[in-house]
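In the previous chapter we treated chains in isolation. Here, by contrast, the input contains two separate entities that must be folded as one system, with a combined length of 430 residues.
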Amino acid sequence: MQRRNLAVLVKLWALGCTILGISLTADAVWTFVLTVTGLAYLAFQRNFRLLCSMGVFYGLLTLLLYLIQYHGLHMVVFSEFYVLMFWNLSAVFIVGFDLITTPPGELAAFLSRIHTPTPVILGLLVMFRFFPTMKAEFKSVGRSMRNRGLTAPAWLLLHPVSSCEYVLVPMLLRCLQIADQLSVSAVARGAEHPGRRGSYYEKRTSIIDWCWLFVWAAVTGLFLWIGDVRV
Amino acid sequence: MNKTNKLSVKDVVTTVLLTVLMIFIQLAVNMICMTNDFVSMVLSVGFTMLLCAPVYFLMVSRVHKRFVTLIYMTILGLVFMIMGNWYLLPYYMAVGTICEIILWRNGWESKKKMTAAWTVSSLLYNGVNLLPIWFFWDTYEAFALSSGMEQSYIDSFVQYYTSAGWLVFIILFTVGCGFVGSLIGGRLIHKHFKKAGVL
């Protein structure tokens, strides 16, 4: 089933609402209201892949939180503080990942329409593409190190500084190469042109988008009213 | 050729890419250090500054213009704001401004100025732990208790960040790591990146 992307305006509004709600709430437990709305928002957009992964992630955090609070579970490698923090921030992660996976052309067209400066648009697009790009590069560095026998536990323990250098230097060199390639590509596509940017996939805000804008505003308002506000 | 101080597309892309890499390193170090209270509360900031120093040096040397540190600190502050600590955004912007003042007169060409800027930012980075204690302790404690965290964890946090001895140790350790990281960063830049012709 094809994804039904909502307008970028709705996605930014949803992110703003969740950040505002989480920053101002006095009761962290009530953040599940925002998270459940976020999951419904993903389901509406038929973003089932993200819905499944975030659903499992949130379920796991809920289970851990339950065990910590009611059965005295003590975390050995991951602090209880961070379990609640991630649980609390789940709504931001959900709408944030949804925004990140929006087609870059749609995002750039919307930001250009609202007169966002070009460096900010470029910065955001680069930031959103960082994780998939770096994941591939990191794997490549790992494979090269394994070929040279530099990933053996004994080597890593005996030569931590050299190991750091072997990972960091190629990663940084690749970062610079990627930055060059991206900037050449952006300039070739007219990034330095002062006019408004458009996209073949640019969408107009429909009645459904306005409904979701209202839903996010109402849910955040209700959430802050129930959960109380801290200043 | 006349070189302006306006950031080009390449400068923006490089700054953002390396900034995100530094933030990713910071989050990864924090996650790994969580295994132990002492390492997490006392040493993790120092380790972060040590590992990020080469990336910072490369970023400033490569872009070779003003406002790179301010952009990095602003993005870092925005990440903390998304995590619910809105007060860290103006704080990090202020730290970025201080670093920009240090680097104002072609600081990217001087290893000493870059070392001074990173060492000062290492000192001020401790605000991430100190500001909640000084200004938002009630909120922090309520959040920690509601997460099911043991009172002993909260007590050790208070002990490390309110006792003068520990505070001095944490600050010295962080500043020392930032300084050593800067020296390593300077050497790595010379050893690898200048030779590779990317600077």
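Chain B touches chain A through 43 residues (CB under 8 Å). The radius of gyration of chain B is 18 Å. Compare these points with the single-chain example from earlier in the chapter.
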